[in-house]
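#structure-requests
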Amino acid sequence: MALTRRTMLGATVATLPLAGCAGGSGGTATTEPDDATGTDPDTPTDDGTGMDAATVSVSDHPELGEILVGPDDMTLYMFDQDTQGESASTCYDGCAESWPPLTVEEGEEPTAGEGVTAELTTFEREDGTTQVSAGGWPLYYFTPDEEPGDVEGQGANDVWWVLRPDGTPVRPGEEMTGTPGGMDAATVSVSDHPELGEILVGPDGMTLYNFDQDTQGEPESTCYDGCAESWPPLTVEEGEEPTAGEGVTAELTTFEREDGTTQVAADGWPLYYFTPDEEPGDAEGQGANDVWWVLRPDGSLVRSDGSTATETGSVY
């Protein structure tokens, strides 16, 4: 689902530094401290009840779904040039003027509001301040966001993204996690690909694949470790039943992987994503090593020529 603000984003951020490298040009938007308190006037010290507001909370955005916000309810972002889990920021100088980090006082532990499941941690920045991370991603504001609900930074230069309550970035095609009425999106849906025809996709609209080294029908996965890093399995919570979107005729089942997670299978084929696929419609994994294939709505395989495979099992 495209953002209605996306068409304005380029003009909004064109003059602001979006790459996170030291020595970047300075942004033009700054916030002056309050003369009386010495703090940012837009940052509350409590939630109106006399209690300190949570450092990170969840807000239900009308276009993006549930996303993380700061104690002032302003949208938080992650930066793709940072490395998840490394407790380090690559955004300083001009970058940090446009994308101010979410910080706490030295020694202060960040607090999570209701619904925040991401682990909140802190690390010391090069300037000595203490930045907050969610799910291993350093958190930032965006200065053109003027009030709660603004998400002008979403997708900026394809490196800045809002985050889900569990700390995962919200990339293109992942804007909404639910259907009208508040129901969760189907686990597996059908997408009409311009070259491959109707294929199966996950709840985020990203292409799903089978792996010929798996055995259809058992089901059981042979993709772990490095393989699973490149081809992440489609999983659901333990005990959760996968749901089929309109047009999906393949039987959806689940099985327990060796790592204890619950993987989804379509017509007996374990389902996977491919990490180089960056947005819905990408199918970079199709035909990889002649063992990875997209699937039709009935769970049959689509070989490299776009035809539906009639044989099953390993190609080795």
